[in-house]
Amino acid sequence: MTRTPPISTPPSNYGDLVARKRVIVACGTGGVGKTTMAAATAVAAARAGRRAVVVTIDPAKRLADALGIDALGNTPTVIDGAWTGTLGAMMLDSKATFDDVVTRHATSKEQVEHIFSNRFYVNVSTELPGTQDYMAVEKLNELHCSGDWDLVVVDTPPTRDALAFFEAPKLLTRLLNNTIYKLLISPRPGVRQAVNRAASGVVRRLARVVGAEVVDDAIEFFQTFQGMEEGFKKRADETLSLLASDDTAFVLVASPRSDTIAEALYFLNRLADADLSVLAVVANRMLAALSASGDEAAQLQARLGAGPLAGAAQALVDHVHASAGDEDRISQIMAHVPDATLTKVPLLSSDVHDISALGDIAELLVQDPL
Amino acid sequence: MDPGQFFASSRILIVAGKGGVGKTAASAGLALAAARTGRTVLVVEVAGRLGSAPMFDVDPQGYDEQTVYDDPDRGQVRCRSITPDAALVEWLSNHGFARIVRRMSRSGLLEIVATATPGIKELLVLGQIKHLEQSRAADLIVVDAPAAGHALNFLKAPLAVRNTARTGVLRRQATETLEMLGDSQRCRALLVTIAEETPIKELVETAFAVEDEVGLALGPVVVNGLLPSIESLDTASELDPSEFGASEHALSAGEISDLITAADFRRDRLSLQDDQLASLAQQLPLAQIRLPQLFTTSVGLAELETLADAASASIEAIKLLAD
User: Fold this and answer.
1) CB contact under 8 A, B236 and A266
2) How many CB atoms lie within 10 A of CB B318?
3) What is the pLDDT of residue A276?
4) b vs e for B279-304, b when ≥16 Cβ sit within 10 Å of the residue's Cβ?
5) Is residue B7 within 8 Å of residue B34, measured between CB atoms?
6) How many helices (H) and strands (E) does chain B have?
7) CA distances from B56 to A91, A241, B41, B61, B192 (A)
8) Residues 6+ apart with CB under 8 A from A284
């Protein structure tokens, strides 16, 4: 498979992104079908002859079954199907990925063991907000750099803050860079003593309110990470430049429900604040458009009165009304990102439960826009 | 059950559910239904989006408390926001760190405290809600809890903190909060879903975890966004299009096709919805508060009245609340 050059101008359609980008990040709020769209995007790329892998985060069980993946392994499974390229899929294991990262950067085996047994580390690697984003980005970079894949598609954790993904690679370096840590491990004994005297007052008081053992674990955590800061920092810089490059496309997945639209607009505003843009919007769960307008539907209902078609007429009025609402809400999103390409995926009657249903969505994604 | 009696059964209702199920609208609709029984209701938003006030047709004034509905013949709804970050800062300020809390935030120490004790911020939000309850800030407090998997983390936060902090003031806070969550006279969870497979599956998992692990009493399940059923949808597809085109209504081919498509679609959705409601009832034997789908672009007071009507009607059909 030959590499195709990246495109810096906005793509004319979704198929363009699928055919040419090296990294696609599916973002959006929870409950809009983001994981399904990420998986369908990888299927579309495999059908276009590329080696594509999708990293899913907490997929619905049926989707995971459809893809034949489970939490074990933390590496991609290759899925056979009717495509000329290769399709890989995996479920992100955040903790295992974090352990890998630590092992890679550690200076000795003892250091690794020390870190793994520290409770503060366990908290960082499982509970800290942003850890899942951080590990999704790490996995993305790892797969991208492996040379095994032409396209890496990543699902993102359900978060309110669109920038969490960009902040994520800096999570550990930020933690390791903070003043307290520097003071605690200062190599100059004189400084350390002076600082320790000043800091110990605060630490003692903290220990009283949050518990002494909590403070001890935190201090030990910082001591065990000594010598690894530079490696983490370099990696974070690399990852961020990949995300900011033309190789990477951000796709916003949205559904036209009014509460998720408010979230999507908040999302886009946060991205715009940071000078980031989405190249494509996938509007999922759209009602099929009918030919009648709202007025026409209402007139038809009046004409049919209480006759045998009264029920159908009511269904038509509701449908046209709801569908107009869908279109209206999606156009609110598009007004924020006028250059992005819009792809609509209709409301399906059931959750995706096999690979052929995913193929159908893949086809919808890349077909020419009307 | 009389709605007045229902809204008097617990002083706090925690409304929780995954993203995209219309949790904020459901909270606001329930708050309005409660206010109509002559109560003062305080809606506490935890996600920090300030989404409630606009639903009462009022501009949000920020995180502080504001009155959004006041009917002298009925009751009152106020709303306010408590964010996890602010709760941590406030708590530390009240525990001897008032002068240095800003510096702690800048130096990253706050982040370390939060990391060292997972769940501390959420616990402190619940702590503030407990304070509001104990000071009788309102007759009823409706909590619009964080979305997604976060709902469970939010409710399990006191457990997480109690497991980490074995000594100290924080542990006492965790224990007291668990007491509040475990007392059905004080606190009850209303889980919200839509009638679709994945959200229902998550709701059932959350319900068992909340009950078994946190000991929180569950109120009725709120099923949001239900399509109203329609009689005689079948006639459209049964009728012969050519016959109807020639009938007194003189329908065009386009009109016939639209009618058939809309009727078929509605029938499919309704049958899917019925299956899901039955599956929910079978998996989780709790009463259901059923709220209709709103065919409008945004939710305002008129739509909230519709939700409150539906909520009250569902509540009247409830026989008994489980403890």
Assistant:
1) no
2) 18
3) 75
4) ebeeebebbbbbbebbbebbbebebb
5) yes
6) 14, 8
7) 42, 45, 13, 13, 20
8) A32, A33, A36, A37, A253, A254, A255, A345
H or E element at residue B80: strand B76-81
CA A276, CA A265: separation in Å to the nearest integer? 14
Report the pLDDT averaged over residues B219-246.
79
pLDDT tens-place string over residues B184-202: 999 999 999 999 888 898 8
CB contact under 8 A, A318 and B295: yes
Size of interface A-B (CB pairs under 8 A): 209
**Packing angle of the helix pair A229-244, A94-105 (nearest 10 deg):** 120
* pLDDT value for A214: 81
Q: What is the mean pLDDT of chain B?
A: 88
Query: Token pair of B149, please?
Result: 């998997």
- Closest Cα to residue B230, out of B195, B273, B199? B273
Buried b (16+ CB within 10 A) or exposed e, A279-300: bbbbbbbbbeebebeeebbbeb
Identity (one letter) of the amino acid at B112? I
B246: pLDDT confidence band, cut at 50, 70 and 90? low
Q: Which of residues 247-286 of A touch B (CB under 8 A)?
A: 255, 257-260, 262-263, 266
CB contact A351 to B (< 8 Å): yes
Listed in sequence order, the residues at least 6 apart from B274 whose beta carbon sits closer than 8 Å to its beta carbon are: none
User: What are φ and ψ of residue A87, in 5° steps?
Assistant: -115, 125
Q: Which pLDDT tens digit goes with each residue over B101-125?
A: 888 887 777 888 888 888 899 999 9
Under an 8 A CB cutoff, do B236 and A311 touch?
Answer: yes
Contact B196, B146 (CB under 8 A): no
Q: Which residues contact A11 (CB under 8 A, 6 or more apart)?
A: A17, A20, A249, A279, A280, A341
Alpha-carbon Rg of chain B, whole angstroms? 23
At A17 the pLDDT is 94
Q: Give the phi and the psi of residue B232 in degrees, each rounded to 5.
A: 50, 45
Closest CA to B165 of A211, A217, A122: A211
- SS3 state at A51: strand
Amino acid symbol at A230: E
Which residues of chain B make contact with A158, given a CB cutoff of 8 A? 19, 147-149
Rounded Cα distance between B218 and B232, Å, is: 37
Please give the Cα distance from A91 to A75 (Å, whole number).
8
Question: Could you list the pLDDT tens digit for every one of the 370 residues in chain A?
Answer: 444 444 455 567 899 999 999 999 998 877 788 889 999 999 999 999 999 999 988 777 777 877 877 766 789 999 998 899 999 999 999 899 999 999 988 889 999 999 999 988 988 888 777 788 889 889 999 999 999 999 999 988 776 666 777 778 877 777 777 656 565 555 555 555 555 655 667 777 788 878 788 888 888 888 888 778 888 888 888 888 898 889 999 999 998 876 678 778 888 888 787 777 789 999 998 988 899 999 999 999 998 888 888 899 999 999 998 899 899 989 999 998 988 999 999 987 667 778 888 999 999 999 865 5
Q: Are B262 and A319 in contact (CB under 8 A)?
A: yes
β-pair type (B66-70, A23-27) = unpaired
* Interface touch B263/A316, C-beta < 8 Å: yes
- pLDDT for A3: 46
Residues 114-153 of A with CB under 8 A from B: 119-120, 123-124, 126-128
Q: Degrees (nearest 5) of the Cα angle B230, B235, B239?
A: 155
In angstroms, the CA B278 to CA B275 distance is 5
